[in-house]
TrEMBL record:
The gene is ngcE. SUPFAM superfamilies: Periplasmic binding protein-like II (SSF53850). Belongs to the bacterial solute-binding protein 1 family. It comes from the Bacteria. This is Carbohydrate ABC transporter, N-acetylglucosamine/diacetylchitobiose-binding protein. Its main location: other. One of its GO terms (cellular component) is cell envelope. It comes from Streptomyces cinereoruber.
Length: 481
């Protein structure tokens, strides 16, 4: 989502949580294979650098002269924010040298290093070749980041790093128990994105109930505008607004049951009602014609051109679609429209969660250095630098004071403020990547939104996929604590 690479790497500026479906077939099997291999490798247990002396200035005990090896996913966020943070590390530890490797091919670059037991000290595990987080954790390939979380923050040493983070960041890095394996640096607001200018031209306001949604859709249709579009070739984007709607209608416990792969979780009345609501958009012709054949860039372009009013997406869209978005577009985001007053959670309920996952390998030679680099990145100065340059929030709870926020970022902050504690965070997409994308997304929701399957057929199919995953002993299973 970097402001420059969104234009130069249009098809690659994608976030960690959603990889290209085309890449899945190429990546998922090799990823599993290489992780199995590196789990059996015993060649990397040696060579760890000697720890430094802990002090107020060096709370993690970084070896001040040890080299640091940092591999960054070079996607939509670009490289500059990381380079700027590295300069701070080099200033603080002038005897240390930092090897910095930006790449769009995380698995290809790191497979031989993991297999050889010589992984880097810090990795931004993102992009189309992202390594499967659940597998990494299950194979014990990651270092526990608790020392980082319990270290004093750079800005206020009286506070631990964990106490400066946005809601859900620590929990997203946990899979079993209290250990935290992943630090998601970016903070993404998922929801229904739209042009305030276009909505105003329809003399409409964002709909809070489904009847209101259908009325706005009909208004748009009469003006020759499609109400909705989405990444038809990557229909796992649809859940960015559908999942929080399910949570709003039925409560968090419905989403938790789905994440936990519980029997009949997908058969909950809230799921049925929300699927039927979205299917109504299809039946009434409110979806932009040809949407099932569009990829994420094509659907976003049609939307920025005013051909469609609403699109389910994440906050990276402001930067990724910047090339085609008019200056007066009035980018805005809202939590999902609900059904009616019977919904369990209030209007404003939204899905917001960490993204851009940073990890420190268990066999890293300089794990303390990797964590210290993350501690620097979680300072207010580094956070503001990131937010200003790539139009995205960070995991730091704050860091926006004194910054002139872009329209989408301003709307995202307002949406978070409106949501308050009503923020949901479905975990399927990081616990069970293939299930969420290939099966639930493409084979399930994608077929329904293309009009090729009814909600009842889709729910039955998805529940079968979930039951198969729950019974698959080769899959590491996770549950909400």
């Amino acid at each position: 989502m970097g402001s420059t690479s969104a234009q130069t790497n249009e098809g690659l500026g994608r976030r960690d949580l959603i990889k290209r479906s085309a890449a899945i077939g190429l990546i998922s099997v090799p990823t599993m294979g290489f992780l199995s291999a590196c789990a059996s490798s015993d060649s990397g247990g040696n060579g760890k650098v000697e720890k430094g002396t802990k002090s107020d200035k060096n709370p993690l005990g970084v070896n001040e002269s040890a080299p640091l090896d940092f591999v960054l996913f070079d996607g939509g966020f670009g490289q500059q924010y990381a380079k700027d943070a590295i300069k701070v590390y080099e200033t603080n530890y002038p005897k240390a040298t930092v090897k910095f490797t930006p790449t769009q091919k995380i698995t290809t670059t790191l497979q031989p290093r993991f297999n050889g037991g010589t992984p880097p000290d810090l990795i931004d595990n993102s992009g189309a070749e992202q390594m499967d987080m659940g597998v990494l954790v299950g194979q014990k390939q990651l270092a526990d980041l608790t020392p980082l979380l319990d270290a004093p923050s750079i800005d206020d040493p009286s506070k631990k790093v964990r106490d400066t983070l946005r809601p859900g960041i620590v929990e997203m890095g946990q899979f079993d128990g209290e250990q935290c394996w992943i630090l998601n640096y970016a903070y993404t607001v998922y929801g229904v994105w739209y042009s305030q200018k276009l909505l105003d031209s329809l003399d409409a306001k964002y709909p809070e109930t489904w009847d209101e949604m259908l009325a706005v859709c009909e208004k748009a249709k009469k003006k020759g505008i499609a109400a909705w579009t989405y990444a038809g070739k990557h229909p796992y984007y649809v859940p960015f607004s559908l999942y929080p709607m399910i949570g709003k209608v039925g409560g968090r416990e419905v989403l938790d049951a789905i994440d936990n792969l519980e029997p009949k979780a997908w058969e909950h009345p809230a799921v049925k009602a929300c699927f039927e609501a979205y299917y109504e958009l299809v039946q009434k012709g409110y979806i932009l014609k040809g949407t099932p054949g569009l990829d994420h860039i094509q659907s976003q372009t049609a939307w920025t051109e005013g051909k469609a009013l609403f699109i389910p997406n994440g906050s990276w869209v402001e930067n990724e679609a910047a090339k085609t978005m008019p200056a007066d577009f009035g980018l805005a985001v809202s939590g999902p429209t609900g059904l009616d007053a019977s919904d369990k959670m209030p209007f404003g309920t939204i899905w917001a969660a960490g993204g851009e996952p940073f990890i420190v390998p268990a066999k890293a030679k300089n794990a303390e250095g990797g964590m210290e680099q993350l501690r620097i990145m979680l300072s207010e100065a580094s956070s503001k630098n990131f937010t200003q340059s790539v139009k995205s929030l960070t995991a730091l709870n704050g860091g926006t004071d004194g910054i002139e926020l872009s329209p989408g970022l301003k709307s995202g902050v307002a949406a978070l403020e409106k949501a308050g504690q009503n923020v949901v965070n479905p975990r399927l997409q990081d616990w069970y990547v293939a299930l969420q994308k290939e099966k639930i997304g493409v084979a399930g929701i994608g077929e329904m939104m293309a009009g090729r399957a009814t909600p009842a057929e889709t729910i039955k199919k998805i529940q079968k996929f979930a039951d198969e995953a729950a019974k698959d002993s080769s899959i590491k299973h996770y549950k909400h604590q």
